[in-house]
Amino acid sequence: MRTSIATVSLSGSLTEKLTAASRAGFDGVEIFENDLLASPLSPREIRARCADLGLSVDLYQPMRDIEAVPDDEFGRNLRRARHKFELMRELGADTVLVCSSVSPLAIDDDGLAAEQLSRLAALAQDFGIRVAYEALAWGRHVSTYDHAWRIVEAAGHPALGTCLDSFHILSRGSDPKGIEDIPGAKIFFLQLADAPLLAMDVLQWSRHYRCFPGQGGFDVAGLVGHVLRTGYDGPLSLEVFNDVFRQAEAGPTAVDAHRSLLVLQEAVGVGELPAPVVPTGVAFAELVTPDAEPVSALLGALGFARTARHRSKPVDLWEQGEARILVNTGPAARRDGTGLAAIGLESPDPRAAARRAEALLAPVLPRRRAPEDAPLDAVAAPDGTELFFCATGRDPELPDWRADFAEVPHEPGSAAARIDHLALVQPWHQYDEAALFHRSVLGLHAQESVDVADPYGLLRSRAVTNADGSVRIALGVGAAPADDTLHAQHIALAVEDVVAAARAFRAAGGGLLPIPANYHDDLAARYEFADGELETYRGLGILYDRDAGGVFRHCYTRTVGRVFFELVERDPGYRGYGAQNAPVRLAAQHAGRPAR
């Protein structure tokens, strides 16, 4: 289906918005009136600019407070409308959005509303324009889509139809099944937005918290399914009012927006995307660092052994059991210290995984590699993390990244471990985009978002996982300063005995994050422990959580650069991440920061 986006959904000047929409792959745009009024380009120049970019002007919006008003007021409204229709003819837009009135002058009279909308449509028809009447969720007298349709039907004018908006319908809890009673030819336009499920004034909810389909809690796909069953053949168009999107760069936001429509079309059975290829494990995590010494010391204390060196790049492979860490000291090393730069994901079909990622607009990463290096497919996540699709030692016909490394003399790692989960901190404006990306591109399941209290703000976190938990990625974003420990990434290592692992780490010279005594005092009040158990946890800084599925014990290393490690012992039935302990961990990290 054709795709469109309202210019109000993107930041910047109108020219920047149009360029971003075109580059992201949209077919058309809705021109929001404020964007036109603020533009130095004339309507004819905007039309020419859209044509140059391959964009149609699908809608001009909004026209407000038109219907069900006293005759003298309606006369003024028709004068205003004539001016807008002349403008639209220059702009090349053939459909105008008319919102249900919120004016205090509006009269609760459906017959009058229908009669005046019919007269408006007759005037519009003289200009070759259609009128799409939309029920605002906070309209003075018309606030539901079925009410708006009854008025349109009563008016009976061929140039008058309805506009359906998923936010206005779903935010009120209206049943979208009734949409199927509307003839598809009378649905002149369809606007789409998702939103988190919030208990607040619907106007404020609408103006500030809408998001792209798949990023909130609405069943947008279900609504679109009802619309398509009417025979509607117009575009799927996004109209999203969101404070974050208004401040973020237009280009990435437009890509995120178009990706959401591709996924939506797949969900309703009208899209043609390569099938999802869900990763089955973590092949490696790659750290980049300007100084390998502190990272090497940390890995050594954790029980890792340096087992191999890349044949052509300054990259070392460290292993402990099934856990593999790459340490890269090449040009990619971050100036601001050690960071988690890449993740290798085990894939049943790496090439197919890359094809789906590319179809969903994920940037394909060019690789500087020697001719003998393994040809791995890689894409960039929204935060810039590189994702490699791997087939480690599984199929001789598929490239194995380990063939790029030459073994070096080493002693075996001191214990068995694997990567339990990875935590990635997202840029503040890409949190929702990251969840949609990992869900749609990688086929991971997104869990509910949680808020965690930090001494200097709130941290939002949302985990994405595969079915068996062999891939777990926690996506977080917070309000603390960018150089704060809140923004550190971390790698969680699953061990058989966290007490033994913590003791071995400390004996090897590693520094564990100290946890306040008040925390363990509170544990004593909430749970019963075996003799000496709680004292052991207190001495090592081990945190504890329990749910219906089992027990979770974990502790943290001190931070190196922007990375720290977590040692995790989880019962098989425990599916969480110790979220209730996160505020204590964050406070301890803040307390351990070097003085400024």
UniProtKB/TrEMBL annotation:
Q: Which residues are noted in the entry as Mg(2+)-binding?
A: H421, H490, E566
- Residue runs in coiled coils: none
The pathway this protein participates in, as annotated, is:
Aromatic compound metabolism; 3,4-dihydroxybenzoate biosynthesis
The protein's UniProt keywords, in alphabetical order, are: Lyase, Metal-binding
The keyword Transmembrane is assigned to this record: no
Q: Which reaction does it catalyse?
A: 3-dehydroshikimate = 3,4-dihydroxybenzoate + H2O
Q: Which family does it belong to?
A: Belongs to the bacterial two-domain DSD family.
Q: Which named protein is this?
A: 3-dehydroshikimate dehydratase
What organism does the record attribute this protein to? Answer: Streptomyces hyaluromycini
Its ancestry begins with: Bacteria, Bacillati, Actinomycetota, Actinomycetes, Kitasatosporales
